[in-house]
């Protein structure tokens, strides 16, 4: 039996949802794989919600909003662009980035709406079912870490500050270069991903060496992250066996 993907689409009320309506009224055909959720603006889509959709078994997620410059709330779709592009980088850590789409469809583009949905459905069909459905425990643990990165305060701050920083510079009036900002964000995403993997590993007390082996990282690097996690109050020493400290997560 051929695979029929389950896709969820978050459509902004003022453009893309109206575009979907126009497609229906104009009888432009599009696949029935798409379940539509109407939101007031694409900028309202929280990255964590997208990860929840994947967790709940969707094979693809589409975010559709007004064309840049046409947002009913002026800048919501610029915010959506930064959020979704950053989320794609986060999802790349578990190879789910290709299953997320951000597109602009206006209220007058019924035909374009049907084409965008067809193309994305074909793409997801060719990718096959979401790898999360295989039940691979390592992948599921990595995905949990990805979800935690998507709701991480530091990453969300970077997402929220990008536009004002690029437009107005920092508090000292210094210009921020986009490439440097993106590189910094990439490093922060990777570091938080590793830290969250460590936190998840430490649900049960473990030594640094055990954690390093389980998540295939260098012991020195794990130790550096553990020190930071202890400073943040997320990890504590559980006990010391001979001279080896065993650490445990506090919050999971
Ligand atoms: S109202 Fe459509 S993207 Fe903001």
Question: How would you describe this protein?
Answer:
- The chain folds into two domains: 7-133, Rossmann fold (3-Layer(aba) Sandwich); 152-249, Arc Repressor Mutant, subunit A (Orthogonal Bundle), CATH 1.10.10.
- It has 252 residues and is an alpha/beta fold.
- Helix 1 (16-25) links the parallel strand 1 and strand 2.
- Helix 2 runs antiparallel to helix 5, helix 3 (76-92) crosses helix 6 (153-168) and helix 5 crosses helix 7.
- The chain contains nine helices and six strands, in the order βαβαβαβααααααββ.
- The strands form two sheets. It has a four-stranded parallel beta sheet with strand order 2-1-3-4, sandwiched between helices. It has a two-stranded antiparallel ribbon with strand order 5-6.
- The chain has helices at 16-25, 47-55, 76-92, 110-127, 137-150, 153-168, 178-201, 208-214, 219-231, and strands at 7-12, 34-39, 60-65, 100-104, 235-241, 244-249.
- Bound molecules: FE2/S2 (inorganic) cluster.
- FE2/S2 (inorganic) cluster (FES) is lined by residues 12, 14-15, 41-43, 65-66, 71-73, 76-77.
Topology (SSEs and partners):
Layout: E1 7-12, H1 16-25, E2 34-39, H2 47-55, E3 60-65, H3 76-92, E4 100-104, H4 110-127, H5 137-150, H6 153-168, H7 178-201, H8 208-214, H9 219-231, E5 235-241, E6 244-249
Parallel strand pairs: 1-2, 1-3, 3-4
Antiparallel strand pairs: 5-6
Helix pairs in contact: 1-4, 2-5, 3-6, 5-7, 6-7, 7-9, 8-9
The site of FE2/S2 (inorganic) cluster has 13 residues, from helix 3.
């Amino acid at each position: 039996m051929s695979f029929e993907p389950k896709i969820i689409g978050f459509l902004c009320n003022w453009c893309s949802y109206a575009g979907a309506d126009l497609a229906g009224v104009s009888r432009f055909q599009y696949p029935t794989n798409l379940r539509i959720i109407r939101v007031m603006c694409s900028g309202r889509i929280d990255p964590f919600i997208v990860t929840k959709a994947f967790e709940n078994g969707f094979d693809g997620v589409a975010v559709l909003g007004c064309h840049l410059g046409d947002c009913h709330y002026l800048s919501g779709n610029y915010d959506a662009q930064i959020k979704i592009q950053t989320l794609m980088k986060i999802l790349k850590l578990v190879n789910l980035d290709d299953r997320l789409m951000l597109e602009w469809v206006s209220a007058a583009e019924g035909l374009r709406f049907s084409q965008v949905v067809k193309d994305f459905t074909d793409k997801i069909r060719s990718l096959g079912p979401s790898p999360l459905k295989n039940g691979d425990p390592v992948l599921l643990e990595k995905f949990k870490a990805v979800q935690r990165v998507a709701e991480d305060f530091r990453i969300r701050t970077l997402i929220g500050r990008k536009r004002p920083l690029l437009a107005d510079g920092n508090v000292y009036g210094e210009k921020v270069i986009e490439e440097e900002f993106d590189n910094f964000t990439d490093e922060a995403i990777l570091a938080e991903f590793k830290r969250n993997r460590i936190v998840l590993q430490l649900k049960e007390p473990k030594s640094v060496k055990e954690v390093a082996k389980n998540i295939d990282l260098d012991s020195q690097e794990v130790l550096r992250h553990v020190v930071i996690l202890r400073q943040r109050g997320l990890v504590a020493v559980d006990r010391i066996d001979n001279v080896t400290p065993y650490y445990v997560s506090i919050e999971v």
